[in-house]
Amino acid sequence: MTIRVLVADDQALIRAGFTVLIDSSPDCLVVAEASNGAEAVRLASRTRPDVILMDVRMPVMDGIEATRLIATDPALSNSRVVILTTFDLDEYVYEALRVGASGFLLKDTPPDELLSAIRVVARGDALLSPSVTRRVIEQFNRLSPPPSRGDEPFAVLTEREREVLAAVARGLTNSEIADELHMSVATVKTHVSRVLSKVGARDRTQLVVLAYQAGLA
């Protein structure tokens, strides 16, 4: 299956560089390029990409608002947004994760790692590494907390699913969760998939954010 990618950045040279790199991979294809957030939203609706590489600082509409609009559009429920940033975990990353981004990448990420990240996100897996997930949670707790959503979305979870969710929110990998909860990795994956479905989260990254907002992380 070819992974369809939209690249959104206000610098033409950066867009061109990403496009050449992505199109050089046999399983990836750039279907559109956007120079601002509004254009990214419009082109996403038209092309329905699997992955959107989104710069934050763009004219007309920034990447945060564009991400929010894309993440809340039911027609784009299968599109994953990856934030492009020049600074590791800068202030914009947290807001982007809150509004629906599936992860972030530094703009100077090595080519092979960029392509690998696109494949990871397209599969619906977590792009954030466990160590980064832990740092995200720490930063969320340091910042002024957003209004709590309460734990209503999690009321449908079984006790075991809540244990798995808590472990995911702590940034544990499937293998670490399996060891801690004494189950197989395959069983962990099944539980994670059920939790995602029950709470309506797009991916593991969103589980972390939702758990934090509900006060469960």
Rg over C-alpha atoms, rounded to the nearest angstrom:
17 Å
β-strand amount: 5-15%
Sheet bearing the most strands, described? 5 strands, parallel
CATH class of the largest domain: Alpha Beta
Number of domain units: 2
Tally of individual helices: 10
Helix content: 40-55%
How confident overall, as mean pLDDT?
84
CATH superfamily assignment of the largest domain? Response regulator
Q: Distance between termini?
A: 36 Å
Strand tally is 5
CATH topology of the largest domain: Rossmann fold
As laid out across the biggest beta sheet, the strand order is 2-1-3-4-5
Structural class: alpha/beta
> What is the N-to-C succession of helices and strands?
EHEHEHEHEHHHHHH
How does this model look, in words?
The structure is a single chain. By secondary structure, the protein is α/β, with parallel strands linked by helices. The protein has two domains: 3-127, Response regulator (Rossmann fold, 3-Layer(aba) Sandwich); 141-213, Winged helix-like DNA-binding domain superfamily/Winged helix DNA-binding domain (Arc Repressor Mutant, subunit A). The chain is 51% helix and 13% strand. It has helices at 12-23, 37-47, 63-71, 91-99, 111-122, 130-142, 159-169, 174-181, 185-199, 204-213; strands at 3-8, 28-34, 51-55, 80-85, 103-106. The chain has a five-stranded parallel sheet with strand order 2-1-3-4-5, sandwiched between helices. Strand 3, helix 3 and strand 4 (80-85) form a beta-alpha-beta unit. The termini are far apart.
